[in-house]
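--- STAGE predict ---
source: upstream dedup step, 1 unique chain passed
mode: sequence only
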Amino acid sequence: MARPRRRYASSGAWLLPLIAVLISCGPLLTNGFPQGHDCNFELLRISEFAAAVRSGQVPPAWAPNLYGGYGSPIFLFYAPLYGALAAALSWLTGSVVSAAWVALVLMTCVAAGGMYFLVKEACHGLPSGAAARISVYIYLLHPYLLGDKLIRNANAEYAALCLMPLALCGVIMLQRRPWTGA
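--- STAGE serialize ---
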């Protein structure tokens, strides 16, 4: 017996998570890097991260040009994912500012995919497509997540919150298939 074709593929429901990503990233796409209360320091940290890697610090620990040239071990206090991604993108784009907002958009896409797969994995065996899409909307448009990205410039924390659904999805996968994590 042939399996019935899913209405999901033909209904255009796949557009709704994409719209949530676009709404969440709308200010980034129209205005560039957000001018939050820590924006100048965030751009400086990305620039210093890239300079530290170029000077041979792997992983970077010391930013010699911060605080009036006295330097700072700032990279020991911030998770490195966002800084490393933005620094790598700055080499590709040629601009720290454009790399910073492109990294935020990419992290938002990771959060959307991670939340979708988390709910699909948690609802294994149940019709969960709508639940997974709704979880993407709620997660991406949550005020705390938007505040980290657009107001606070807490980008290291934002990157961690974007990866959290993937980590939880991995934990749930280990319950059913314990040898996948070995």
